[in-house]
Amino acid sequence: MKRPASTVIGAVLMFGRVVSGLVYIAVAASNWRAFSKNLVLDGAAVGFDTEHMADVVLIVFMVAYASWLMFYLVLTVLVFRGSNWARIVAMSLASLSIVIAFIDWWNSGVEVSLRTSLLSLSLDILILLALSSHSTRLFARRDGRAVALDSE
After folding, report:
1. What is the pLDDT of residue 68?
2. Where are the domains of the chain?
């Protein structure tokens, strides 16, 4: 069975999520002091110990986020190759991300803008749409059972 366009588009969008995360890490690393002070310390003037702890917390966060991105990259490759479980996990993660963004907006009134979550939210919606298509499902379930269902 030929790989459907929706599978390719879904994998490309998932790769876009990985790239956007790596850009976020690169921007944070290139301006570490300001990023640490604004994000972790909330702009407060602190002593050396607190600044050092903020750096440690931020490094742990960045390493965890980079590890998550590597897992998502492997998931992207598996989706592209036609793994059904990877497709379902990717759709579940996209759905969870959309729900979390909605809850954050509903409870806190966090604006959805380019500075906050517009890029990730739009990518998640498009990933969900691409990977839930009929042709992608058939491609991911292309064993003997999918062929039998397709012929009926």
Report:
1. 96
2. 5-151
